[in-house]
Design goal:
The complex is a heterodimer of chains A (about 350) and B (about 375).
Chain A lengths: L15 H7 L3 H26 L4 H43 L6 H16 L3 H26 L17 H11 L8 H5 L11 H27 L1 H6 L3 H7 L11 H32 L3 H21 L3 H40 L1
Helix pairs in contact in A: 1-2, 1-6, 2-6, 2-8, 2-13, 3-4, 3-11, 3-12, 3-13, 4-11, 4-12, 5-11, 11-12
Chain B lengths: L1 H20 L10 E3 L2 E5 L7 E8 L17 E8 L2 H11 L3 E3 L5 E5 L4 H13 L8 E5 L19 H7 L12 H9 L6 E5 L4 E6 L7 E3 L1 H11 L5 E7 L2 E19 L2 E16 L8 H29 L6 H9 L13 E12 L6
Parallel strand pairs in B: 1-5, 2-6, 6-7, 7-8, 13-14
Antiparallel strand pairs in B: 2-3, 3-4, 8-9, 9-10, 11-12, 12-13
Helix pairs in contact in B: 3-5, 6-7
The chains are: A mainly alpha (about 350), B alpha/beta (about 375).
Chain lengths: ~350, ~375
């Protein structure tokens, strides 16, 4: 459950950038990144298995030593917080555009951040439980809105990708989708703690979780494209929100049922942030060997950093530049590099200790 | 210690609640001027546009509804401004309430708007997050003020056009067109946006926008043909003068299967229309035999076919494509629409119409 619900972070930005970069062929980029994410998660889970340490920080210390820990952890954590801050800002900007034009964005950003911190300072089981509560609600509302918006589909033929694949475009779009899967070390930290029904199968379950997220993204991609067509999607900043706002069931008492659903999605973002903050603080706690009480202050500080980043971003264009132009490639190469290096080191060490 | 953290928690929750409420945007309805109709007109070459907003009379309550005079149901504000946003500002200067367009239901644009004008207006409209994209759009000829229909059929704050378009059973052909579809059609290449064109109190025609210039108005026959080709006919009727007398077919509706292909740089459309209808009127002196029925059927199919051909001819004559065939072709064939290769001058259409006539009635 925990792994599944790490997903909701940046979904609302989807899929404008991909369509802009690659048009209808964006679906290849999505499949590529999903495959990549599967690979990354598999490596992470293998790494967990090899080191038998938890959370992530201890894994890193076990494999790369104390120096490695002090290099890897701050960078990974910082990337995670920056991406979170950008996503939070963009969500606030979206709320501002569609729902609260008069409310200052700082209030919305602050509210969501405070709620996330609040959940984040609780224990692991509390965090997991609140996710367990919200997750079905979010999913049911998503299913409902998808059902309603399928009425608006205009061009089914526009989903079908073209036979020609332009490689640079494809790579660019693939890079642009990475942020949806950029979990930092969340999965590696949480996977050992899930209470498995029956035999522990972390590999299978993380695979399922990634596949589930990928299929939801695919459905959203398809419905957005089929409703508006690629040229129109590329022109909108929030194509998916736009499509959902078209859902109006006039026989009901209120028109914008899609809008209602979107508000419940705010809770998805809160949970996403909460899980990230929780894992971040947990890892820092393990790193500096701090007490349980100190972890709370780490959460608060991390929340403040995320808030600060979100507030400092001047405009949504800048935020998207930062996300797609800088953070996506940097985070992807960093996490791939660290992961491959560590798995290799851990593997070699294990073989050596066996042969001795 | 415990009570202090509890106090903090309660305080935090209170702050959260205040934040979530979004008080800045929360305005009671009585302090708002909810525009229901927006009318836009613009004369070619002139810099400023005419914007007209219709508001429901705020003094109306359920009990006073019967006393209010029809001409007092709405109040209107009209301004000259170069853009939508400027129009807000200027209208706000006239109003003692907060101008709010989140409840907008109908947008009526003048037929003097060129395609470029319409595109710039729709783009501006579409940028604004709070404006409802599900409002209906229709085209009318100037003066637009006659389009604010006050009829006993609807009472305020309902708007006639909105009620009409909402009601799927009211329309012989489904012409309702929400504003997002109009925007989508304008942004998507290889398509001529088709927007319903309204007379004073009925909607039976189409305004089709060429790539440049003012719109082409499709006649009633051509509009009907368009509706048949697009599968939008819901309850049309048809009178045929035949050897056995005048026969009327009612409740004509059906399904359409179409396919588009590019043949030698030509756009070829294959359309099969299957219709079903009821016999509504039949000369009582004539017997209803299989033979006469099949003759009537042939005549009816022929009539529908002629209407379809009229629509296609009009489109070819004016170099428009209100059917979206070209767009479909470029979606299916060429991938990224910017790379669309096929350009065509004419639509070659092969249309086949079959009509099934049901004869069950009160007195066969």
């Amino acid at each position: 459950m925990v792994t599944v619900s790490v997903v909701a972070g940046g979904v609302y930005l989807w899929p404008q950038y991909v369509v802009k970069a690659e048009g209808t062929n964006g679906v290849w980029a999505l499949l590529t990144t999903t495959g990549l994410a599967l690979g990354v998660m598999t490596l992470q889970v293998l790494w967990v298995k090899m080191t038998k340490k938890t959370p992530y920080a201890l894994m890193v210390r076990d494999t790369l030593g104390v120096v490695g820990l002090w290099v890897v952890m701050p960078v990974t954590g910082l990337f995670c917080l920056i991406i979170d801050g950008i996503l939070l800002f963009l969500f606030g900007a979206m709320l501002h555009v569609f729902f609260y034009p008069m409310t200052p964005e700082i209030v919305m950003i602050g509210t969501i951040d405070v709620a996330a911190v609040w959940i984040g300072i609780r224990t692991l089981s509390t965090v997991a439980r609140s996710i367990q509560f919200w997750f079905p609600i979010i999913m049911v509302s998503l299913a409902m809105i998808l059902l309603f918006s399928s009425r608006d589909i205009r061009f089914l033929s526009s989903i079908v990708p073209t036979p020609t694949l332009v490689v640079p475009q494809w790579l660019r779009a693939s890079l642009g989708t990475w942020f949806l899967y950029a979990n930092g070390a969340v999965v590696a930290s949480l996977a050992p703690h899930v209470r498995w029904p029956g035999r522990a199968r972390p590999l299978l379950w993380t695979g399922l979780a990634i596949g589930f997220q990928g299929s939801i993204l695919l459905i959203l991609f398809a419905i957005t494209l089929a409703t508006l067509g690629a040229p129109a999607v590329a022109q909108l900043q929030w194509p998916m929100i736009y499509v959902f706002s078209l859902v109006s069931v006039r026989t009901f008492f209120f028109k914008g049922i899609g809008m209602f659903v979107l508000i419940t999605w705010a809770s998805a973002l809160v949970l996403y942030l909460a899980v990230h903050l929780f894992c971040f603080s947990w890892n820092i706690q393990a790193m500096v060997d701090a007490s349980f009480r100190a972890r709370r202050w780490i959460v608060v500080a991390a929340g403040a950093v995320v808030f600060g980043i979100a507030v400092l971003i001047p405009s949504s264009i800048k935020a998207e530049q930062l996300l797609f132009g800088l953070m996506n490639p940097v985070d992807l190469s960093w996490s791939l590099g660290v992961l491959m290096l560590s798995v290799m080191v851990a593997w070699i060490r294990r073989r050596r200790s066996k042969s001795q | 210690m415990k009570s202090r953290s509890q106090l903090l928690a309660i305080l935090g929750m209170g702050l959260l609640l205040i934040g979530i409420a979004g008080c800045w945007d929360d305005e009671p309805d009585t302090l708002r001027a909810n525009a229901l109709i927006l009318m836009v007109s613009h004369k070619a070459g002139e810099k400023s546009w005419n914007w007209r907003f219709y508001f429901p009379n705020p003094t109306v309550t359920v009990s006073s509804l019967s006393q209010i005079k029809p001409e007092e149901e709405f109040y209107t504000t009209s301004v000259q401004a170069p853009s939508l946003e400027q129009a807000y500002t200027q209208v706000q200067q006239h109003l003692a309430r907060d101008l709010y367009l989140g409840q907008l239901e109908v947008v009526i644009v003048s037929d003097t708007l060129t395609t470029k004008d319409l595109a710039s207006f729709l783009n501006a409209y579409n940028r604004e997050g709070t404006l409802p994209k599900t409002a209906y759009i229709l085209v009318a000829s100037s003066p637009l003020s006659k389009m604010a229909v006050v009829t006993p059929q609807v009472s305020i704050p309902a708007v006639y056009w909105e009620k009409y378009f909402d009601c799927k059973d009211c329309q012989p052909e489904l012409l309702a067109h929400p504003i997002w579809k109009a925007w989508d059609d304008i942004v998507t290449p290889d398509m001529s946006p088709a927007i319903p064109y309204a007379g004073f109190d009925k909607i039976a025609q189409l305004a089709v926008y060429r790539s440049v210039g003012s719109p082409v108005i499709f006649s009633r026959t051509e509009t009907l043909g368009w509706a048949y080709l697009m599968g939008k006919v819901k309850k049309e009727s048809l009178s045929i003068i035949s050897p056995v007398g005048t026969v009327t077919l009612g409740r004509i509706h059906g399904t359409v299967h179409s396919r588009v292909e590019a043949v030698n740089q030509h756009l070829q459309a294959f359309v099969q229309i299957h219709l079903t209808s009821d016999v509504a009127q039949w000369e009582s002196s004539a017997a209803m035999t299989n033979n006469t029925l099949s003759r009537i059927q042939t005549l009816a199919e022929h009539r529908v076919l002629l209407e379809c051909i009229a629509a296609i001819n009009k489109a070819n004559m004016t170099h428009t494509d209100p059917f979206g065939y070209g767009r479909r072709l470029s979606f299916e064939q060429d991938g990224p629409p910017s790379m669309a290769q096929v350009h065509w001058e004419q639509i070659d259409a092969q249309v086949s119409v079959t009509m099934q006539i049901r004869t069950s009635g009160g007195n066969v």
